[in-house]
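Hi Prof. W.,

I finally got the CT326 similarity prediction working! I wasn't sure whether to trim anything, so I left the full sequence exactly as given:
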Amino acid sequence: MTAPTESRSSPPTLLEETEPLSPNPIPADIQIPRITISPPSLDVSTVASSAEDISVFIAGGPRSSSSASVASDVYELVCLCGGDEDPEPPDSEVRTLYVNGSWQTHQEAVQELLYISEVRGEAVRLLYNDGSGMSPWPISPCRTLPTLDHPLCQALLTVWEQFFSAPENQNREFLVIFYGDASPYIQQALTQSRHSPRIVVVGISPTVFIQGDFRVHNYRVSGDFFSSLDCRGTRAENTTILPYSSGLEGVFLPSIRCPSFTWAVRFGEQCLVANRGEDVEDRGGLSQDAERSQLPHSERDLAVVIDSTDPSSMSRLVEWLNQGSPSSDMEINPYPQRCPDVALSALYAISRVSGLAQEWILASVHEGLDLQICYSLILMHTTFAVRYFFLLFTNYPQSRERFRTARIVAQSLYLPSILVLVFDCGNVLRKLWMPQEILRAIFISASTISGSIVFVECTRWMGRGLRHRVQQFVQQRVIGSGLPVGTVRASYRDRAGFIIGFLQTVHGGLYLPVSIMVLNQIAIQVPRILVRPNNTAVYDLHNKSAEENWSSGDVLAVGQTLNFILCAFVLFVNLWFFVKSVLRHSRRRRR
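And this is what came out:
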């Protein structure tokens, strides 16, 4: 469990409970009691009568007979947390909505929806945010905000109107979770909705903070780059600075699936619900007076209040505290569990060490400025290789908390590692004007390798259009299906992960080994072409001293040969797993 929540402008904001929670899904007619940081204002404008008739688009048609008519602009999806055999709940019971950041593709937003539903244990609705109607500038004063007639704003109004118009939801509240830059659409809709006093908003790593007297609370980590651009929002009273989790995904650009935000996604709205006394009475817990008598006097303090008359309350509290991590935790922090996993981890570790050894061998044939640059690259690549092994061996749950600070420092080196690759690529391009053509071929091959790594890493954060086209190709051509329609269940999680990770899998598992093998084959020919043009032998280590072998480049050729064999084996293993994964998802589609 992560450390308590910290707030920059006030004492720590903590969680208050009137009854211990269990990991079972919460029934739709029950609300979790929470504490109030500041009473929300009830002075809001009423919605126009025409907004009640606005409908929202569901890809492929309405999900059920209770759905409204369709407007084909917003992609909507409902994630059901139960198994495939569980019945589908009516729309009126879905009381949680998620709006993604504009740099997520459709598949990535669906993956985040699956994560939120798993963490909260309830059905969650997605309204996809494509970023239209708003300028891409990350700084708030430079942004062009969307208008009220934007399709996403109208979709929000429609969903809220449908939910609160149901008779069983007259005394319930609606939760909106957003990530990144989705807040301007929500703010526009809140301004015009007559239900805004009963709408609770939780922002995860917001880049634009909601202004106004609404029931909003934001969560961010201290190193988040884009959310720190709005200095006023980061210092606001309703913004909480969360501590980094020991299993954090990243320091500067964490996603909503980062373990640092797990508890904010699960219970982030606890400080925003107004009517705690009514909730307690509905749940058969303590009375409002009894509850207040057992709580600290400060409304900003945290308390978990347990009903002493319930004999099973303590056991349920223990079950809640022992609740396992979400499935995304294993994706972010993989660690070998079986003998084949250990063998594969060792294999990839050997390939990293082998690549680093090649840098040391190259240092023996450099001089002057090239030698200084080579030693600098060796130092930096050694640092990042140690970082890789440290994170790999401390990904085990029992080791994370023990090395939490060191893991945060190691994760913060991600951005410098990309900058080193950029520097390495520039250094390679500098050597293109060498007189020997074979050396030009070597450096051209090396530049394509380091340049491709930089390109793929940049695509992960900025190339939404390219990622969307690749994912769409995989979805239609490889798997043979489209986006989920109407509803999606937890069983779709594996397929979504395969589609999203396809580009990185092909690049890291297939393209890089092939490129390194080609580069090795070119480098193997260097001693023969430059030193022994009339000798057909690839290298000749006999009848020469060690110094002569180094100066002639024969030792380099031996190292390149060993690296070529190792990369060929890695390529074979990667290709086997890749084909196996494609066939598995294709068979699942045919079933």
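The first strand starts at residue 6 and ends at 7. Does that look reasonable to you?

Thanks,
D.
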